[in-house]
Write a structure and sequence with these properties.
Elements lengths: L1 H4 L1 H28 L2 E2 L8 E2 L3 H8 L1 H32 L6 H13 L2 H12 L4 H8 L11 H28 L4 H9 L4 H12 L1 H16 L3 H6 L11 H11 L3 H27 L6
Antiparallel strand pairs: 1-2
Helix pairs in contact: 2-14, 3-14, 4-8, 4-11, 5-8, 6-8, 8-11, 9-10, 11-14, 13-14
């Protein structure tokens, strides 16, 4: 009887369910299946190797380095993408002139293709690019932004930060609209103003949105690929080679689908772990007994 009552709702959910089945669930289980086979000798006749692909990755110094590189990239990007857009959102949420103009200018990089942004920054980072041109004007030796392992990952991280600040700022702005003005008025009556007012009122009220931004930015950092592919191809000396780029190399350049699939499964567990960690840190009060 309940099925007949809800048949309309199920029909509306059916198209989304079919899309998820085709583009998510089938590839997901297929990836797990492929991870148990060895494709390195014969792509068309793989050999069942059980968990050997996972063991090979755990013992691989290069794969372990890609994990460290990915975490380093996450540390460079996520704290900035969580804190700085919040600062901008609070600033723009005030009664200031040209508010909409500032929103458009800050959000503009979001609508530009990441490939275009990466190519533009690659020109800026070139040995004879604009950044080194200004350094030479101040008698500073040129820097190999993308060719020196000390600077390459930082240079790529700046592209991700530049691209993401406006997006996360808009998320925060939508959350700030839900903060009652009466709370700010109460703070001012108690003599709490400026930065302390936002620490006492704004931050606790929008904590779920901070958790969302932290989770989304962490997942994006763990899955970074386009910036690496366009700007460095994992170099120099594998200093910018991340997990996703390693998976791409093994799958589409070496045609080693087994190792690539095993790496993808490991990445899935890493992403799930970080997502659960973010939820626990920012919303642990909800799950207390």
């Amino acid at each position: 009887m309940d099925l007949r009552k809800n048949i309309g709702a199920y029909l509306f959910l059916l198209p989304a369910g079919i899309v998820l089945l085709i583009f998510f669930f089938i590839p997901f289980f297929q990836t797990i299946y492929l991870s148990f086979f060895d494709y390195s000798k014969d792509v068309y006749s793989p050999t069942f190797v059980a968990l050997q692909n996972y063991w090979a990755l755990v013992k691989s110094p290069l794969f372990l380095k890609t994990i460290l590189n990915t975490f380093y990239f996450l540390i460079l990007c996520v704290p900035f993408l969580v804190i700085f857009p919040l600062f901008l959102a609070i600033l723009i949420n005030q009664n200031i002139k040209f508010k909409n103009t500032y929103k458009i200018l800050i959000y503009l990089p979001v609508v530009i293709s990441i490939v275009v942004v990466a190519i533009a920054f690659k020109w800026l980072y070139a040995p004879s690019g604009l950044l080194n041109f200004f350094l030479e004007k101040f008698n500073i030796a040129p820097i190999g932004w993308l060719y020196d392992p000390k600077f390459s990952m930082i240079s790529v991280a700046l592209v991700t930060i530049f691209k993401g600040v406006g997006y996360y700022m808009m998320i925060y702005l939508s959350a700030l609209m839900s903060v009652p003005k009466e709370l700010y008025e109460a703070c001012e009556l108690d003599g709490i103003t400026g930065f302390k007012k936002h620490m006492a009122t704004t931050i606790p009220h929008i904590m779920p949105m901070i958790a969302l931004v932290s989770t989304i930015s962490s997942i994006s950092a763990l899955k970074v690929f386009v910036e690496i592919y366009v700007m460095t191809r994992g170099g120099p000396m594998d200093s910018t080679k991340t997990i996703v780029y390693y998976i791409y190399e093994r799958a589409f350049e070496n045609l080693d689908m087994g190792i690539a699939s095993a790496g993808a499964v490991i990445l899935l567990f890493i992403v799930m772990g970080f997502s659960m960690l973010n939820i626990f840190v920012f919303e642990k009060d909800k799950y207390k007994a």
